[in-house]
Amino acid sequence: MVNLITELSKYVMTLLLALYTLLGFWLVRKPEEEKKAALWQQDVFFLWLHLLGNLILYLNTLNEKVIGFYAAQLIFFVIFLTLQHLLYPKSDKLLNHNMLLFLSVGFLILSRLSFDKATRQFELAVLAAGLTFLIPWIIRKAGGLRRLSWFYGAAGLVLLLAVLVAGQLSFGAKLAITVHEITFQPSELVKILFIFFSAGMLYESQELRQVILTTVLAAAHVLILALSKDLGSALIYFVTYLVILYVATKKPLYFLMGLLSGSGAALVAWKVFSHVQTRVLAWSDPFSVIEKEGYQVSQSLFAIGTGSWFGLGLGHGMPYKIPVVEEDFIFAAIAEECGVLFAVFLIFVYMCCFYMIINIAICLKDPYYKLIAVGLGTLTTFQVFLSIGGVIKFIPSTGVTLPFISYGGSSLLGMFLIWAVIQGMYLKRSDEVAGNEEGKRTKKEKKKQS
């Protein structure tokens, strides 16, 4: 009976996520006054998907802790949305829905892989939500953030240098440092400072001297990451800066020169770093080195192929055969047990988020925040591309986490910060629209009086 319910549930879960995704793209195109009813419908799809996934997990494990964990998640989601509505009634509800969807999928698949890690991830999510709750208000109200560009750049370089000097080795790279038994990965937080730094410098001036100075300091960030062998983060920083530079200056030559220099740097990294050569070998022909270098990628491809379109059902796959599956290769675990279609719809939800962020950037009048929005949208989307691209053997694996879904406290906190900043800029956009409407009304009243 359990097997039958599990078999049927995977089709229902895929259908619910498909309806949620389609409704999300429909909501993006509609004005605020037409969204309320559709947002309630999206809540229903999300809550049923969340309930069904946890029910199937419980039936297959008979672990009563799953029920308590589901209840805790539900309470957290309700409190989060309620506080968002009370404190930020004009915030983007769809962005919040998408974030909670990613979190729920992450909690679900982590519970399947490691219940201890799932509960730890939940605790970190609650903490991150609390720490970042005032960020939208700060972005909306603070007027002096653009004057701190040098501080952002200096703080970022100091933190990255600290990792280079005192960081712990993990899979051949220095990624994290430990302070008072708390381990964190500074690059996940520095990338936000990096965007604020780049946007602030190029907002001040787009003259050649300023562009060169900003590029040199941005290259210093990337170089330190490369020396730490954190090449996935280095690539994210590089591409994000390149997009910000192009949007700020509108000069294709800068973008082309950046691509050429980046290609040259990638070739040098392949020649110099042995673990890069290993990853390229595993990418080019993983099955020829399946017992060593290609084992992780091969197991990922086996998992995705075994799952096929609708998956094997929660608890019926073997995702634990993939090394570091909770972090770098969690997308393969989702595809194996929930299905390729389910995984594809998740990608569409990420694409919907990117479209929304870029739309915020286009509508913002303030060029400083416009550049920040472009940078955050590029960073998040490119990280998704690197994470999934490595899992499906489209590109060599870079060890990058999947936003909001992969296990990792620093990554989770960084994504909450990004989401909070984006919500702050959405509120600024709403303020600009309200200001324009108020200005138009004032002009009409003056005309009537005259």
Count the DSSP helices.
Answer: 17
Q: What level of helicity do the residues show?
A: over 70%
> Radius of gyration in whole Å, from Cα?
23 Å
Structural class: mainly alpha
State the end-to-end distance. 79 Å
Strand content: under 5%
**SSE order:** HHHHHHHEEEHHHHHHHHHH
Output the strand order for the largest sheet. 1-2-3
The description of the largest β-sheet is: 3 strands, antiparallel
Oligomer: single chain
Rough shape?
Answer: globular
Total beta strands: 3
Uncertain residue segments: none
Q: Could you tell me the mean pLDDT? A: 89
Task: Give your account of this protein's structure.
The structure is a single chain. The protein is mainly alpha-helical and 450 residues long. It is 76% helix and 3% strand. The chain has helices at residues 2-28, 36-61, 65-87, 93-113, 115-131, 135-141, 149-166, 186-204, 208-227, 231-249, 252-272, 274-284, 295-307, 330-338, 340-363, 367-391, 409-449, and strands at 168-170, 173-179, 182-184. The protein has a three-stranded antiparallel β-sheet with strand order 1-2-3, covered by helices on one side. A hairpin with a 2-residue loop joins strand 1 (168-170) and strand 2 (173-179). The model has no long low-confidence stretch (mean pLDDT 89).
Write a brief structural summary.
The chain has helices at 2-28, 36-61, 65-87, 93-113, 115-131, 135-141, 149-166, 186-204, 208-227, 231-249, 252-272, 274-284, 295-307, 330-338, 340-363, 367-391, 409-449; strands at residues 168-170, 173-179, 182-184. The longest helix is centred in the last third of the chain and has 41 residues, at 409-449.
